[in-house]
Records
---
Amino acid sequence: MNLKNNWAILLFFWINTALFAGENPFDISYINPLLLIKAHSVVRYDNTVIKIQNIDKVVENCQKEMTILNKKGDNFAQIYIHTNKMKFVSSFKAVIYNEKGKIVKTFHKSDLIDMAMSTSSLTLIDEDRVKILSYESSTYPYTIEYEYVNQFIFNIPETYAIEALPKNQTETHDFADFSITYTQKGQQIIVNSILKLKRGAFPAKSYQDLIHISKLVQSSESQKAVLIVK
């Protein structure tokens, strides 16, 4: 793991914490008024950090804060976490706040609904599954803050050899930094991915950059390694 990246992440969290010392960051009054124009929801914080704990264990920590301004924004408060036999949710917590930043409701891992990804079956034995939390409020605006931790395990059967790995990628923008690397150690593939979205208000001309990095993150999740039979 790159120690420089670790220190950058720690500094990033420290700065954002210091900004709100003695204040309630979930109060809607702290949202830049420009972001509220014709908006249904506002992303106030979004950060994902993936750490390599050992050679065959990867931990993904995701944190997000979203303020829902009206009923048309309710779908943005729905949480979907994809899982399979190599990726599972180890912890989850979500908190709902009213417009003044007061806690309304708290959810935990046991509140997640488990469903199969396949549309042809909803059995409990499918490998590709999704954990869902659905919430709708009768009053607006409200803010949902949630954090979950995923764990990954990548083990290649001894009968296969790794012939090729996906390409490493790095992107840096005013509002976000993204990097993903792939390395091989024995029969394990280690994926190190970091997405840092920065707080702030950005000009409309940055929208295309946002779309670009969003597509990059999505495409990185579908990269494939090439395996051959020994």
---
Amino acid sequence: MATNKSTLNRINTVTLTKQITQTMKMVAVSSLEKQKKEAAIIEMYYHSLQGLVSQLHPTSSSFDLPYIKVRKVERVLLIVLTTDKGLCGSFGSSVLSSLTHEHEQLRKEKKDVMLLPIGKKGVAFCQHHALPYLGLYGQNNNKSSWSARVKEISDLVLNAYIEEKYDEVICLYQSHAVSPSRDNVTVEKLLPVSMAAQSRSSHTSYIIYEPNPVVVHEAIYPQLVRTKLAHMIAVGQTAEQKARMMAMHQATDNAERLLKELKTLYNRTRQANITGEINEINAGTLSR
């Protein structure tokens, strides 16, 4: 049976750990609410752009727009949204596991795959497995704002696609949870822009383009791609904060259960020591 001193040391250590996990849980809850609001705003803007593009799409075929041109897929750019930090349960491992599966599937289809990891965990994964990748992007960068970072990444992707370095751009990210205990890894095509799911408006003949249709089309499609990428990143960060909140909540509960067991052990050991001392005193008294 453990001594009282060692048990007391463990109680103090677990108590401090519990305080840390509780604090991290509160920080994750605050960050989660902030990320939800940002994701909701971007989603509203993205849906508005989708509605506008659905009206413009019937006339887009008359222009030579690289954003909607479908090519034979031989080279694929795979964007992977991962985390910069850990302590979020199986969130990171599930994304990287899906990345491995998707990469192997594309390679089996005889396609050249280039990775674009966003997040330090993704970069480290590519370096460890010697996978080819572009850029060095973390989700948090002190030198530039988040919106500027998204624009930088989206411009890199758009330019590479326009220059026909890649025939298709796919994004892999962790989506919102279907239930409080499970998140989904989503694989979604970013380029070429697909309007198959968009309803075509019957009022396109009444649209007046200023300054001209070519300028409008060339401006609206890149903005749609930037907004879609920003929405994916916002959704992924929301899922990350939710996973971290759940992981810290579970860690706090585990610490609470361990504290109860340790306190019970401490009290039993203390009571056994007291009982033993009383028996020694009684034995000494009787021997006189």
